[in-house]
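Section handout 9: paired folding examples.
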Amino acid sequence: MKKKHVLTTVMVLLISVIFAGCGGGNNGAQTTETGETDWPKETVTFVVPYSAGGDTDTYARQLAAGLSNELDNNFIVVNTVGGGGVVAGSSVLGASPDGYTALFHHTGVMLAQEAADAIEFSYLDDFEMVASVARDDTYALIAKADSPWTTLEDMISWAQANPGQLRYSITYYGATHAVATMMENTMDIEMNNIDVGSATADRLTAFMADQCDVLVVNFMNIEDYIENGDFVVLGIASEERLPGLEEFPTIKEQGYNVVLSKIYEVRLPKGTDQRIVDTFTEAIEAVATTDEFRDILARYYAEPFYRDAETADRENREEVEVLKEIFAE
């Protein structure tokens, strides 16, 4: 397995940004007469590691809209792609710890990279955790409708008869990598893992151009293709069938323990004033627990999933240990 040096080039390109952002050390927090912080006084930016339109971007924008109302301040999204999320993570890592630049990312990539020791920084140790926001269990394994297989068992039989020939769209050290490892381990198959990019749009383009045979992707990104009959769902990587998607079997119920949830979280630069972190956390809880937020996420077959910083950090570390065991198999 590739290790940290895979992304060294990206980190070298970013080092000047990081050093520039780390200077000063003024976190910008001011205390009111009641002892509370006056944050936020200006626009807060969510840095999202992927292009507009995908699941991470969609949920970030929904949270930003809710927080703008909750805190009577502007929250915006900036899409910063590259390096499998490393460019976005590094830009926030090096930002001023004043509460105005936050990372909105999901555990599917962050924890896989952490478990694989694949990046030069730690999402768990080098940021201030704020809260978890949403959860999406709709990671669907799909094939084209005109492929040689339209069921999971057909795909497995073909892959076993043709070792190393099933072309799978992978982003190394991300959610797709974790799913690939679980598939190969539980299905007794060997796939031809092809990296066509980390952005959902790039992966879908490569899939439709017949550069790969199967891929996993959040259902919201392929719903139209399923309805049009272009793609077929071989299974969903969830523990049980999902509300609104009951017609699609899980991979687990078909006999293969392939389960992966993507939990979307907010992080701030290390050293951010704890009063800012606490205010941010409380505001996220207020938004994430509303019926309005729940109903919005339900459109994408996702759900609110609020966890405070302490709970999220503890459970993320536990999940990293599980992923380490998966990658070691």
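Moving on to protein 2 of 2.
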Amino acid sequence: MALKIAVLVAGSWGTALSRVLADNGHTVALWTRNAGQADEINRNRTNEKYLPGADLPAAITATTDMAEALDGAAAVLVVAPSSAMRDVARLAKPHLHNDSLVIHATKGFEIDSLKRMSTVLSEELGRPEGAIVVLSGPSHAEEVVKRLPTTIVVAAQDVACAQAAQDLFMNGEYFRVYTNPDHIGVETAGAIKNIIALGAGLSDGLGFGDNARAALITRGLAEIARLGAAMGANPLTFAGIAGVGDLIATCTSKHSRNWRAGSLLAQGVPASEVQDRIGMVVEGVRTTNAAHALAREYNVEMPIMAQLYAVLFEGLSPDRAVGALMGRVKTHEIEEIKEKWIQG
């Protein structure tokens, strides 16, 4: 059945997911604050700043009017940057129907409160957190909009909500969707993997090669799982699509803004200038700040994150950060995994 879906906002990921929804026969109201961007989408069927070369179907209509976007919408997909999530939710609240399904696809934490995005949406929209669906997984917008094969996860404690989101996005030709009840694990994995991708880009930028990148991915996964388990996630989530799957995609692709940000840091670009160079939000930088505070709050050891925090916010040089990681006290891998991941 064709439905109207509201998508907030019109960045690269929101636009790519709008294409999936349109391909599935739905009409999409794509909300943006930028009148020029809305006009470009409606007139030219393009969104050149965020997805150069993409041709958008007529079923996607852009608007700057939140009431218009949400009027009659069976579901709302929020893809605002983590820093704007609360503000966008507040704008949406007066126009959101009580029975509309709420989904978000943002990978990050709120910096001041350290809250996950589903918690922020729950507070602002007055919905139970367990009914808010998290969409995550290895999914570069540049590939999704070209209809290249992609697999993602939709997670919610309320199984019916997750299945409803699965039905909206499942496309037998190129977009496969799994469900998962562990929204905490899926959100945590999606946010923290951006930090590890910064490290992978930094390592590649320094010319350290495949061995170093593989070690960063593997040890980074251990850090993600350690923090996630402490926050109440199911450790098995991190072995799946939203965990190791997303981590591999983000750490090995030049589509990744976080990888590119790390590469720029390795080239000597100051952290304060990296996001301006890329031209879009780099969630990993903000998330590193949040993860640093979360690691202290939950008393979780995250050495890769700690060194990246020092590079980004304390002026540590990238090569010294790598030296600090390599010179850590020796330990036993399996015993560490059992103690700090599976049991902790």
